[in-house]
Amino acid sequence: MTDHLIFTPDDVDLTRSPLRRSLDAPTFVLGAFNPGFTRLESGNLLLMVRVAEALVQPVVDGHARTIRWTAKGYVLDRFAVDAIDMADPRQFELKGRRNRLLGLTSLSWLLPVELDPTGDRVVAVHYDRAIEPQASWQDYGIEDARISRIGTRWYMTVCAVSAERHSTALYTSDNALDWRCEGMVLDHQNKDMLLFEGLVGGRFLALTRPLGECYFAYPGTSEWAGGPSINFAQSPDALHWKPIEAPGIRARAGSTSALKVGGGTPPVLTDAGWLTLYHGVEQQASVGVYRTFWALFDRDDPTRILGVEDRVPLIEANAALTAHLAHQMYLPSPVVFSTGMVDGGDDWIVASGEADLACRITRVGKGGVG
């Protein structure tokens, strides 16, 4: 296994940020991370990097300020500091509300970064093809792209954040560089949607991860821990989705990922079946420890799970990679968040977000997965 950081906050040229068109307040890159990942027709690789842009002065005159997209340009909203909890550097929570209401300390947009075929160096950064919010249901940002090539087209899902809803949007492309927004495909609080890289029985298949404020408990004798889980859904056209009743990947009681699990890389078809990498979270501090594990599904009926590794991680956070960025670190727990995987010959080339800060490339031998 080999590792390196390929793109960091210092590599983003904020003079070319889409926010510069209308926002005068100075900003900085909180993180350039959690990239969608695919191989282009040319053989080069593409990272669709999440750029989280934050205000240099988030608090002014006793008020926390946040960035919001509008049809007329980006604006700043204000919240009284004594009315919010600012313990998490990524977000704040409004106090005294019956429903949990959050604000974000940054607004995210997507930056296409082209790499050489091995993922060892950046060959182009496509600021002219950056993807930013374009509707009120995306007005607090778009996050955590996942890219799947299905046939001759590329499909990209993103998390769209707004006060209206927390949803999943779909983008499509004929070259993975020029994208068209197809609109919302999953409604409130459904994250980490991963399209299988190929049709199954003539239909699109996806992994999803619905969220909520509460979950129902399994019996005390169950092997499952409960909480967020990875589910299956199917569609005739990638736009209209129906959940599949068979359970997917669930947090197992006693494992190091018992707090929650979530989707990582779009499933790819191998000789052994459909292979995906996912994240499992162990309780620690306010964020938790994020690690990458693998799962394998049957090629003809992916709801038949052939194997899940949830105890020995495939990829873990590596503090040595971000040591030179220590002054920019803001998370208290080790986090690696794998978001894409492509064939690299004898290896899988895996793209991840490291510490919610930078983009990491890891080469994993195929013999050790699945």
UniProtKB/TrEMBL annotation:
It comes from Sphingomonas qomolangmaensis. SUPFAM superfamilies: Arabinanase/levansucrase/invertase. One of its GO terms (molecular function) is hydrolase activity, acting on glycosyl bonds. Keywords: Glycosidase, Glycosyltransferase, Hydrolase, Transferase. This is Glycosidase. PANTHER family: GLYCOSIDASE. InterPro entries: Glyco_hydro_beta-prop_sf, Mannoside_phosphorylase. Belongs to the glycosyl hydrolase 130 family.
